[in-house]
Amino acid sequence: MQDYPAYVGLFSQDAAVHIRPAFRGPEAHTTRTAHDHPTRKINPFFRWSFLKMLLNMKRLLTHWQVGDGREARLVEHVLATARPGNVGDAIRAIDEFAYHTAFLINVGDEKGRILDDAITEAEPRRILELGTYCGYSALRMAKAAPDAQIFSIEFSADNAALARRIFAHAGVDSRITVVVGTLGDGGKTVQTLVDLHGFTPGSVDVVFVDHAKDAYLPDLRLIEDRGWLHTGSVVVADNVKFPGAPEYRAYMHQAEGRAWRTTEHETHVEYQSLLKDLVLVSERI
Ligand SMILES: C[S@@+](CC[C@H](N)C(=O)[O-])C[C@H]1O[C@@H](n2cnc3c(N)ncnc32)[C@H](O)[C@@H]1O
């Protein structure tokens, strides 16, 4: 089902998001504010696909698909409208679908720019992503870091299969490996990363955390305990304000200046401009 036509045209793909430091200085823990265009307010509660997702929240948080087939339709949309072998065009097609056809729980374009900047600055060779969904953020990272290998952990085998189809179409399947599992599954996925994918101490340059919110902190602690990070490794965490990962945020606060240096980016939940969110970019020191 298409969203209300009144909604269409309220946004521009090219609308720039300006990252302005609300506070910057030598003190620890910086906050930055991402401004959306005030004339282009997008209220998600006017979208049937967003309301439907809220109604199906219980299912979404257990199966990690909304339940109306939108994720499978997204893949058909990308395959039909994005130029093969063109990562940027696949990203464009996914944003187009999420704005005009059905809301998706991708990191989205506004927060995606914060992710892009962190990746570009870190120049990673190896990225670990927690939470693939349909592959949108992995595509953004593959574009921002053309020399990186990305290993994306995904709980849902169905989502992994959808993402792989998009990666193949975009021509980045040799650079993005989706591993079905979770870091908390008793060692199976960790062992796969070690045995099959060469995860060794100090080998991970960037982690993007965007999966179950209550797994953010335990999975970060596991990654720290494994020693996979090095000084200068960067961890980017989405949804820290909404739906929220308060334990993760508190951990980064108390580790500030000792193990981590964090910038909090004030931004919005994906594909709308009403609900606020925080993206944390933390550098290992
Ligand atoms: C918000 S979506 C990820 C969006 C994706 N990063 C993007 O921006 O395109 C969350 C995904 O995490 C997956 N997930 C949930 N719990 C997980 C866990 N413990 N480990 C790995 N993946 C998990 C879900 O199946 C879902 O596909």
Task: Report on this structure.
The structure is a single chain. The chain is an alpha/beta fold and 285 residues long. The protein has a single domain, classed as Vaccinia Virus protein VP39 (Rossmann fold). The chain is 40% helix and 21% strand. The protein contains 11 helices and 9 strands. The chain has helices spanning 48-55, 57-63, 70-81, 87-100, 108-122, 136-144, 157-170, 188-197, 216-226, 240-244, 246-254, and strands at 18-23, 30-35, 126-130, 149-154, 176-180, 204-209, 229-237, 260-268, 276-284. It has a 9-stranded mixed β-sheet with strand order 1-2-8-9-7-6-3-4-5, sandwiched between helices. Strand 1 and strand 2 (30-35) form a beta hairpin. The longest helix is centred in the middle third of the chain and has 15 residues, at 108-122. The structure holds S-adenosylmethionine. S-adenosylmethionine (SAM) binds at residues 64, 105-107, 130-133, 136-137, 153-156, 159, 182, 184, 210-212, 215. S-adenosylmethionine binds next to helix 6 and strand 4.
Ordered list of secondary-structure elements with their pairings:
Elements: E1 18-23, E2 30-35, H1 48-55, H2 57-63, H3 70-81, H4 87-100, H5 108-122, E3 126-130, H6 136-144, E4 149-154, H7 157-170, E5 176-180, H8 188-197, E6 204-209, H9 216-226, E7 229-237, H10 240-244, H11 246-254, E8 260-268, E9 276-284
Parallel strand pairs: 2-8, 3-4, 3-6, 4-5, 6-7
Antiparallel strand pairs: 1-2, 7-9, 8-9
S-adenosylmethionine (SAM) is lined by residues 64, 105-107, 130-133, 136-137, 153-156, 159, 182, 184, 210-212, 215.
